[in-house]
Each structure stands twice: as C-alpha cells, then as structure tokens.
DNA sequence: TGTGTGATTGTTATT
DNA sequence: AATAACAATCACACA
C-alpha cells in the first residue's frame, strides 16, 4: 500500500539549448466554432501535425513503424485505460461508432475510479515515461553523434 | 482518395 | 506557478 507516486526528479534537461520553437497557438485549444470556415480549424491542427516533421500522408497510419522520427509523448494512464475501456465499450455499445462518445463515457468513469484502480494504469504510464525518457536521451545522443547538429537553427521544419 | 475532426484526461514542456 | 499543447483512437465528411 501506500504506493506513493514515484515522482522522481527529472534530469536537469540542460539540453534545452536547442530550444526548438513549437508553433504554439495563442488561441489554445479553443477553436472558434466557425462552420463556414472549417478550414481554419484544419489550419490549426495542421500546425500540430506539422510537429510530426514527417509527411502528413498516412499520418494516422502511425501503426507503421516510425523509426525515423523522434520519440513522441507516450500515452498517459488515462489513455491506457481508454484503450481497455474502449474495447468493452464497443462490445456493450456496438452502435456507438465515434470515439467521442467513448471518450466521454471513459472520462466519466475515470473520475469515479479509485486510486487503487487508477494506480495500475499510472504504474504503466510511469514505466512508459521512463522508457520514453531514455528514448529521448538516446535520440539526442544519436542526433548529435550521428548527424551534425544543426548549426543553422532551422526556424521551422519545412515539411521534411 | 485522403486527411482533418471530434472528445477524454494526463503528462510534459515552455514561459 | 501556470498555461499550452500534445498523446491515441475510429468513423465520418469534405474537396
């Protein structure tokens, strides 16, 4: 019991020198509901996808091995729960086709879950983060070691 | 044909 | 300290 959340102090992250400038959107996630110009929304998310620094083509098909890209954020505990919850949800509600409904139901249940149940997913997420952290370190190391560090800071990843 | 969108919370990163 | 944004998934819609 009392499995305290293992909050380990992260590394100093002194590598912040590279300070890549994420194209953050001032508006944040609040997307103006403009039915007329849906393209605007696309533009917003488009930037997000831009971070992928890879051809948008088949972006959703990430199932493909992505070894040429830097490690992305690992799914959070909630996402792991969502993955599991989604399976059962589809069985009980085959009528539901959208993930939105599943997300709502999952989020609602997530709040009702106790720490003991959630800790299970937290544990997984924590472990994944550790691996992710290592992957990042390795990625950086490889980048510096393998490829010449980009002396000229490229403002944006021009596509690819 | 192909990609964007929507919704959930958590974690990370930047300011 | 606080805010911002992204992390995955799947069916649908639009150009």
Structural class by SSE content: mainly alpha
Give the tally of structural domains.
2
Strand content: under 5%
CATH architecture group name of the largest domain: Orthogonal Bundle
Task: Give the CA-based shape.
Answer: elongated
Q: Return residue spans where pLDDT drops below 50 for at least 5 consecutive residues.
A: 1-67, 152-160
Following the backbone from N to C, one meets helices and strands in this order, namely HHHH
The strand count comes to 0
CATH superfamily of the largest domain: High mobility group box domain
What is the CATH top level name of the largest domain?
A: Mainly Alpha
Amino-to-carboxy terminus distance = 49 Å
The percent of residues in helical segments reads 40-55%
What does this structure look like?
The chain has 160 residues and is mostly helical. The protein has two domains: 26-59, no CATH class; 70-148, Orthogonal Bundle (DNA Binding (I), subunit A), CATH 1.10.30. It is 47% helix and 0% strand. It has four helices and no strands. It has helices at residues 38-50, 77-92, 99-112, 115-146. α2 (77-92) packs across α3 and α2 (77-92) packs across α4 (115-146). The longest helix has 32 residues, at 115-146. It binds a DNA duplex (15 and 15 nucleotides) through residues 10, 13, 16, 19, 22, 24-26, 28-29, 31, 38-39, 41-42, 45-46, 48-49, 51, 56-60, 62, 72-79, 81-83, 86, 97-108, 110-111, 122, 125, 129.
